[in-house]
Amino acid sequence: MDNFYVACELGAERSRVLMGNLRGGRLTISETRHFQNSPLTENLSRIWNIPEMYREILAGLREIANYEEAVSSISCHSWGGDFMVFDPDGSLDTPVCRPPETKLTTGMEEFFSQVPWETVYDETGVIPQPDDTLFQLASENLRQLKRAGRLLPVADGFNHILSGVPRVEMSLAGGTQLFNPQTGTWSERLLAAARLPSKMFPRLVPPGIALGAMRTIISKETKLDNVQVVAACSHELMAALAGLPVAANENWAFIRHGSWALMGTEIAEPIVSEAARELQFSNQIGLGGSTGFHKRIMGFWVLEECERHWRTQDREIDRNVLIHFAGSSQPFESLVDLTDPRFQTSGDMPFKIQEFCRETNQTIPRKPGQITRCVLESLAFLHRKTLCEIEAMTGHKITRVFVLDGQQHSVLNHFTTNALQRPVVVVPPGSGAAGNLIMQAQALGHVATVAEARDILSRSIKTQTIVPHSRAWDEAYARLADLVPA
User: Are residues 201 and 264 in the same domain?
Assistant: First the structure.
């Protein structure tokens, strides 16, 4: 029997409408529509074009209706922090925008002058960021907010538009900096501190809950009947973790590359402690009531800053060429501690790398290939350091590490494998959609358990496993550890 589901993957830059087909214990996914999410900028505020996103979603649903297959359900997932406000009559209050970064940073600092950031972490289990919902709201006109009806994060806002049912799913609630993952409730303490009316915040639901039938007006417009709207994992990261083909009872970790990367694991209960706070770990509710336990670490930003500097020197070099030269450079010649504060700010990054090497009596990398090799090896060792922290915090020995959307980073994946001395599994793009779709199937009773869902994903997703083949990385990691004060 075929079961069809629709996932709306809403990205801050690019969005997709996808259809999943569950048949014979396998899930197949096809993209039916993609579109750019192109926010406008006005007075340094980012204005999200929600009406255009809605029109594109409807266009995608109409295309799916042309297949004349019975679609069981639909669900949306998105980035966190940003939100929609609905008036008491249910209409969307526009524009939907994010204030300027300087205003958000000021709002966050002012809030911390009233409530220490340690208290915010103790309430939410999430490391604060300036664009969290709490700090966006702290910079808004409170009198205007008091007249508002409901506030919903982006994906939950679209699920509300599709179903007419206002609910906030817990994984995306974690991105608001107003949700307590230990109690599964909104933080009354932070709402009161920010003077936010609790009536604005809809009822919370765990991941994988059917909200109700798609609104009649949308069914008529798209020609899709009897479609349920599901709150799967509304947060993009937790949807991606739900879509990983992990084994039952396996202790695994993940890396998601980017300018700034995320690295973490899945645990049974949140860890909200002084040690977790000092190590900058966040907690988000996920598949089956599990917790995504992760932290933000350095990604490709240092290399991007190097490339930016070289361009100012009329030395623009293609990234693939840089990687090629890095591959032919001397291994472990120069290593840097990417948690050093100097690497957290922009500037002449090649000089900063050379400065660190000079201070630590290492060979000073001069050529772009040497510098690139230094950055990639140092990133791999940062992954090892973070994995040690994960194992210490959770008490679990990690057996495999999954890299999300990592095919284009082959050299770093191999470096990471040898640095970790663990198998690294490279997952193809689309794990967020896979997690969204498999959770819809579970919400509707087409998949009985989380274990069955994971088993289906293992049969459906083709991955590449890299195994470690060199122990030389252990000695190099010890050398780097000796360079860095405890």
Answer: no
Give the contacts of 322 (CB within 8 A, at least 6 positions apart).
303, 307, 368, 369, 372
Whether 95 shows a pLDDT value over 90: the answer reads: no
Q: 117-162 pLDDT, tens per residue? A: 999 999 999 999 999 999 999 877 655 676 778 999 999 999 999 9
pLDDT digits (tens, 9 = 90+) for 223-243: 999 999 999 999 999 999 999
Specify whether 386 is located in the same domain as 296: yes
Query: What is the rounded CA–CA span in Å between residue 230 and residue 210?
Result: 4
- Which of 19, 13, 43, 14 shows the shortest CA–CA distance to 31? 19
Cross-strand bridge partners of residue 266: 292
What letter would DSSP give residue 362? Answer: -
The parent domain of residue 221 ranges over: 3-234
Is there a contact between 222 and 61 (Cβ–Cβ < 8 Å)?
yes
- 8-44 CB burial, b ≥16 within 10 A, e <16: bbbbbeebbbbbbebeeeebebeebbebebebeeeee
Quick one: which of 273, 255, 288, 53 has its CA closest to 170? 288
User: What tokens appear for 420 in the block?
Assistant: 């970790």
Q: How many C-alpha atoms does 40 have within 13 Å on its Cβ side? A: 9
Residue where a domain terminates, one of 234, 259, 294: 234
Q: Which of 208, 237, 178 is nearest to 449 (CA)?
A: 208
Helix (H) or strand (E) holding 372, with range, is: helix 368-394
Exposed e or buried b for every residue in 325-345, given b needs 16+ CB within 10 A? Answer: bbeebeebbbbbbbeeeebee
Is residue 239 one of the residues assigned to a domain?
Answer: no
Contact in structure between 98 and 453 (CB atoms under 8 Å): no
Q: From start to end of 313-413, where are the E strands?
A: 400-404
The enclosing H or E element of 367 equals none
The count of domains in the chain is 2
Mean pLDDT calculated for residue range 397-408: 93
